[in-house]
Structure formats: C-alpha cells, structure tokens
Amino acid sequence: MRFRYTEWDPVRHGSQKPLFEKLLDLFQDLLEHTAGDAEEALDWMKQLDEQHDLTEGSDKDLDDFIEELKKRGYLEEGEEGETVEITARTERSLRQSALEEIFNDLQKGGMGDHRTPYTGQGDERLPETKDWQFGDDLSNLDVTGTLSNSFKRSGVGDNWHLSEDDFQVHKTDHHASMATVLMIDLSHSMVLYGEDRITPARRVAMALSELIMTKYPKDSLDIVAFGN
After folding, report:
1. 114 - beta bridge partners?
2. Per-residue burial over 27-51, b = 16 or more CB atoms within 10 Å of its CB, e = otherwise
C-alpha cells in the first residue's frame, strides 16, 4: 500500500465536518429566520442548492438530506401529510445552539456549570499544579509533587517531615454561573390583526426555563413582561 501526502487545500478537500452536519447547521440557521417554518427553510435551501450546489462532491442530494432529517427525528409529516414540520428534537437543538452561542465567550465570574478558559474553583482537575493556599480543596492534592518538595527540603532521613510550603494541589477548570433575562412584549401589537404572538413567547419562556433548570441549575432566569 502506498500513501501520497499533499498540502491541505480547503477548496479542494473541503471541510472535515460530515455533509449532514454542515447541511443541518444551515437548515437550523434558516429556521431561525423563518420562525421555525420548515417548509420555507427547505425552500430557501433548495434555492441555495441551485445556485451553489450544496452537495457538490457527494453522491447524496438535498432530497436525501430531507429524508435523513425525517429518519433522525428532526422533521415529521404534517397533519394532512402534504407538509413537513419540525419536531421537539429540532426545537431543543435550536434552543441549545442559541444558548451555547451566548455562553461561548464567558468571563470569569461566580462559580457555576459553564466552562471558561480560566483556572479556578471547579470540578475538572488539570495536570498543572500550584502551591497550596488556604481554602484550596485538599482532594486535589498532588501527592507526588508534595512529597518531592518535602524530600528536597528536608531529605529522606530521620529529619524528614512535611511543611505547609511543601503542599502542591492540582489546578481545576473554573466554571461560571450566568444570569439570563427574557423580556416579553405584552403590548397590543402582539395580538394585532388577530394573530396570537403572546402564546409562542410564553412557550419560549417555559422552554428556556426548563433548559436552564436541567442543564445549568446554578444559573438564574428572570422574565420581564412589558406593554401598554
């Protein structure tokens, strides 16, 4: 067997991300612009496919992608069977993507369940160590590093003993908590022309509340209603 190595060409070789996941990202992005209307989002995808050949280089086409969405539980047939609608799985995926995008650029703050690029008080132990300070959790004690410091300082003979300065502990990832505020418009425009916009807003509030309570229980959620 022979191998041939070439320089990576993003245009020629494309992304390493599977085609289905790339198309799913695009589909979900379009759903946000169509307020969850699957039919309209798919129409937009078909127009984009005609202009840019979204499945170029693959033996699959957009119809195969739509069928895969149904198989994986992202789409379901409408009541009359002539249309498709998003499922609860798609709704949850959209909510999670939106929240993760918000939480993606966290700063160091109060301890919670959101990962940050900082070290601090958290649950995941890192290989890096530091000198022990008052308040550090001794369950993260670096035994090898602590004993090594002690041996270097007092030797291994009868005079060996541990000192506070010998203790080393592992650093941990700092997890942050967040406060989320959802504002709901209860003004007359929300029911203008007989269209009920308040009920969907309530559903969003309940969904966001459920997601935060289950995935980020240390976060807080406040709902502010305003109107005339």
Report:
1. 176
2. bbebbeeeeebbeebbebbeeebee
- Is the pLDDT at 43 greater than 80? The verdict is yes
**pLDDT over 70 percentage in the chain:** 80
pLDDT value at residue 66? 93
The DSSP secondary structure of 65-81, one letter per residue, reads HHHHHHHTTSEEE-TTS
Residue 122, C-beta contacts closer than 8 angstroms, at least 6 positions apart: 111, 172, 173, 174, 175
Q: Is the distance from CB of 131 to CB of 168 less than 8 angstroms? A: yes
DSSP per position, 34-59: TTT-HHHHHHHHHHHHHHH-TTTTSS
Quick check: 179 and 219 in contact, CB under 8 A?
A: yes
Q: Which two tokens stand for residue 76?
A: 């379901």
Does this model's pTM top 0.90? My answer is no
Instruction: Write phi, then psi, for 139 (nearest 5 degrees).
Output: -70, -15
Q: What are the backbone angles phi and psi of residue 82, rounded to the nearest 5°?
A: -100, -10
Q: How confident is the model at residue 82 (pLDDT cuts 50, 70, 90)?
A: confident
Predicted confidence (pLDDT) at residue 121 exceeds the cutoff of 70: no
Nearest to 201 by CA among 220, 226, 165: 226
Q: At what angle do helices 88-102 and 19-33 cross, to 10 degrees?
A: 90
Average pLDDT rounded to a whole number, residues 77-97: 83
Distance (Å, rounded) from C-alpha 190 to C-alpha 186? 6
Q: How far is it between the farthest Cα atoms of the chain?
A: 90
